[in-house]
Amino acid sequence: MYRAFLIKYGEIGTKGNNRYLFEDALIRQIKYALKGAEGKFELSKEQGRIYVTVASDNYDYDSTVAALKRVFGVLWICPMLQIEDNGFDDLAEQTIEYIKDIYGDKHFTFKVKARRARKNYPLDSMGIAAAIGEKLLEANPNVTVDVHDPEVELNIEIREHINIYSEFIPGPGGMPVGTNGKATLLLSGGIDSPVAGYMIAKRGVTIDAVYFHAPPYTSERAKQKVVDLAKLVARYSGPIRLHVVNFTDIQLYIYDACPHDELTIIMRRYMMRIAEHFAAEEGSLGLITGESIGQVASQTMHSLAVTNEVCKLPVLRPLIGMDKQEIIDRSIEIGTYETSILPFEDCCTIFVAKHPVTKPNLSVIKKSEHHLDEKIDEMMKQAIETTEIIEIS
Ligand code: ATP
Ligand code: MG
Question: How far is the CA of 188 from the centre of ligand 1 (A)?
């Protein structure tokens, strides 16, 4: 029965003169998300609000709501009945019908909230609320009024059309992607990094991604898994340019030349260096990782400090204070968990030492890296030049 949605947004309403930029970004992201829903839609902007109107005979309510729930910046999705103004009696009748359709003979308390954007309507806001409330009480023995803490807030808005709505479906919050610059996500096939990308995109940041692939030690299926994860993140963030770096030679070189308990940390420093290269190329203003303090040896405070030392850009680590279980819960919520736990090896697990250092010393690590002086620059160049770019949308 619903053929229109009122989209309410939160934080972006407070951005002063830049507000239209935020609204335009939100509209762009809603359009992008709705490509994943069945139906055709029209979007319009009216006084600090956005309407999505169904423009095709066939459309699917559930996939439409699911798509809207993935748009950052959306606070509430209110499916609404939109009617023409055919006088007050018609409005009352249709409102009663609407309530019956949605709530059947459920008992509930309600209050009517009316707004009149068009001053030529014969009743004022208070008048509309009172009169509709009265009609509803007459028609429906299962409802009572509670103006302080109602279970149902029935909204009647007299605008160009009349909007009737009472359902509030929560959106993800955050800010529309495209309003806060770009950052480069180090995306692996694990549980953490897709969640990290989601969280930064949620703050309005456009993301691109880098994956370090180590064939034949990591398989095509491991790469496909990362592509699939990027697609899942892109449902929220919008299109992602995924850089697939062939990391095998560098890893083997480190393996040959450096102490094995330092492999992971040195490898991670090279990942950061290469990621920074692509960040610069893409106009990214930061890197994003899925690191969390103490989760593994390479994520102790000491290790993070040594890894960070190679970076000039800020490294955003949105999971830094989260426990593994909290990260898992979030990945289930956003729909990446099932893919993340597929059992394909990732490049770090293959070259991992039995007893990696947990308190690396920067000068020691730097000394070990000198063992790579002969060939590493050429190898980095080679890795960058042979990187495959996959456009994910
Ligand atoms: P994740 O679940 O995200 O893979 P993890 O618990 O396996 O994380 P690490 O392997 O130590 O932890 O990786 C820490 C972070 O480094 C990851 O969250 C990711 O941002 C980055 N990273 C690790 N391996 C790769 C890779 N092969 N390609 C791109 N980024 C990677
Ligand atoms: Mg990993």
Answer: 5
